[in-house]
Every structure is written in structure tokens, then in C-alpha cells.
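Narrative of activities, Objective 1.

The group set out to show that a structural description can be obtained from nothing but a protein's sequence at a throughput compatible with the screening campaign. Below is one input-output pair from the validation batch, recorded exactly as produced.
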Amino acid sequence: TRCVSIRNNALKTMKTAFAKYLSVAVLMAFALLIGACTPQPIPEPDPSDPEDVQVNKWTYQILSYYYLWNEEVKAIKPAYETDYQSFLTNILSAVKVNTLDGKIYSGSRSFYSYISSAPVTRAGSFTFAPTYGMSIRAYGFNIQTQTGVVLRYFARIQYVTPNLPAANAGLKRGDWIGRIDGKQILAGNFSDINKLLPTNSSSVKVLKCSFTANSTGDGVIFKEEAENKAVTLTRTTVEENPIHTHKVLTTNGGTKVGYLLFNQFKRGYDESDLENSDEYEQQLRSVFAEFKRAGVEELVLDLRYNGGGYVSTAQLLSSMIAPQSKLGSKWLECRPNASRKSNWYNLLSAAEVADCNLSLPRLYVIASGSSASASELMINNLRGLDVEVIHIGSKTEGKVVGMEVIDHLFNSTDKAIFGNYQYTLHPVSFRSYDAKGTSNYENGLIPNHFYDEYMDEQSLRWIEWGELGDASEPMLRIALDKIDGVTTTLSA
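Output recorded for this entry:
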């Protein structure tokens, strides 16, 4: 899951030994003040230690100051002799009050906080992330076969990006993948679905299947394509723009509506250079300037697959939507642990968004269980400014916390480099609140108009998803009908 994220840059060495390793400032004037924290002595990385131990001591330093539940961290006596991934998991698991850091899925705890590394030889160079150009979701069904009922797993394509491997292979939104590298996906090899993630494989062979309604309309028929129709996808490294689809639609009642499918709150191409990489934010400005010139009267913001991202991008997007009278006002409070001070983000000023602010009194948002963090913050915090936000879809993730991105060693060497690797730590370090001090969506935001495209238990509507951005696509259809004030009728 993506995070509400804030980027940190080391500025200077502080006078005290503890503060020396922990002084930072955040982009967008998000200044953080070191408070009167008096931690227990924390070991500093020692170059003579094994590499993992050095990383783990550095990690413990950062958590002891930044982690939202840092007092509990400081009470833990860490065991440094382990790999750095296990060390972070062990520390987070030992804290008993950090229930907002992650979720429990199928009985297993998954944390939002994480650590990553990259070879020093690559750390300073930028390349696009590997991609197959598609987003997938896993499903499990009991399939009736000649030998009995078998639990099988499938991947369904949520969307494809034009001109990338999946689209070039003829795959499209709504397609089912039933076999991967020639194998059925069963409980014992469910992890093979991870091969469809380009970070786990450089190529993969997929075979499509289908579910169609039976003759009586109360069930489905499963069918696989012939093995010779399997296609091989080879990942590529090119831009996958989070601004997937945008267009101006006209409702049956004559209202001009802007539609934007936005899949990630990302500032620009290169997340390692956020001060200079804001291409996507500039493109968002262009989209909204286009909406404004077209005379858009209502907006449908589609965040159904958006797991979050950067606060600054959510700030810009909110500023281009909000009524002009709200511009420049307090919008977001990032409330850290007790040893640090809260910080506020305001909406941008009227002058900063003069050519792209739509000044809307309400917003239609399509959101689902895949919508998290910055997506939820958008809904909650615009409501905190008395903007009417109509949520269509299903309950969201419920991520009310955000992370800062820590990738400096806070000493004269400047970078968090141990051995041949540079490390980046993403600790949950604040909880998000709106201008009214509200932050009560830890169990997810409840939709105003429920629709679950993944599995509608009352009908077979899940079989046909519809094209994203097409007026007949079910969730967009609901939004357009709400704008017109008419009742939506969807086929079964």
C-alpha cells in the first residue's frame, strides 16, 4: 500500500550528540523542531560492526525519534544481530500500541513502515520502475471439474496502460488470467501470482480464462483458452503515468463533467529527486486548466486503485478542486509523537492555482478498498473544509497515518550508506487530521453510494466491468446519474 509520504533532507549537524543524528527539514516548508525528548542512550553505528548491525543501529536511532510510538520503541532492548528487514519487523512487532501501523490480513500483520536498499552504484542514477503495464487483483473460486470441486486462484486485470507489454499483447481491463507459466494457480502455489508483479519477474507466460453467465442467470460457466493462446509478457522500464485517463463528459441532463482516473499521488518521474522532479504535478495542473477552459461544472475523481503517495500532490489536487474562498486556508495537520511539534499544510493560494482552480462546492469520488492514505486524506480533509464529497464505491483501507522518507545518515557522510548499499527508512511518523481536528476513518471511509466491482453478491454484474472513463462503466454511471438527479439502473 502506498503511503502519505513526506520527504526529508538533512540540513546541518546539531550540537548535542543525539540531535546530531536526527536533524531534518521537510520539503514544502514542513519544518520539524526537535523537542525536549530525553531518550535512553542509543548505540551509534560503528564501522567495525557487521553491515547489518550498522543498519539496524541506524534504524533504531531513527525509530526512537520519528516513529509515532517512539516511547515504546525506546523501551525495547533490541537484538541487532539479524538481517535488517527482520530487525525492523521485530521492533515493530514488539510495540503493542502501534495498531494503526498496518493491517491484519488473513491473520497476518502487515506494516506500513518499511525499509529499502539500493546498490550505491545505482543509488544516484534514475530509471523508471519495471512494469508489465497492468494492475491486477487476486481472486479465489471453487471450480467444478469432472473430478470434483477444486479451489483455484486467478488474477483479474484492473487496468492496462496503452503501449506497454500487457496492452501490446492484447490484454485489457476485466480479463482473467487462469494459468501462469503453464500452471494452474492452487492453494499450494498461490504465490505464483506474484510473478505478475514485474519486481518479481522479468517475463511471465499467461493464459486467459473467462466466466460467463449460465443460461438461467443464477451462476457462471468457467472456460479456459487453449494453451497455444498463452502469451509471454516481458517487462519494460518506461514511464507509467499515474494520470491514466482524463476527459470531459456531458451528462444526459447537459452538465459538463470532468473525469480523472488518478492512480498514484506521485510528484514526478524521479522520487529520489523530489525538489526537481514534479512532472506529474505539472501535468495535473494542465489537466485542470483544460477542465477549466472547457467549462467543467462537476468533477468525478476516480481513486479506486490509488493507494496514496505524497502529501504535496494531494495538496495541489485539493487546491485545484476547492472553492476559491477556501484557498490558502488550513487543510491538513500532521500530528507526530509527543517529542515533536504538529505541522500544518494549507491549501495553495488563489494566485498559485489561478489558471486551474475549478472552485467546486462538491466533488464526486470513486473509491474502493484499494484506495488508501492520500486518497482517504483527500476525502476527509476536503470535507473538513465543508466541501461536499460524495463517495461512490466501497469502504476504503483506513490508513490515517503517514510516513516521512529518511535516507540520510545525519552526519558528515550525508547518505545512509553501509557497505555497498544505500538504505531508506519509511517509518510511520504522524497521524493526519483535517482543519477541524477530525481523523476518525481508521476503519475505512464508508461510501455514500455502495458499489463493489470486485464481487457483487446480489447479481452477476462483476462479470462485465466496463471501460474506465466510459459513461456506461457502473461506478461512473452512478456518479453521472447522481449529478443529473436520476436513479441509476444497472443490468445484472
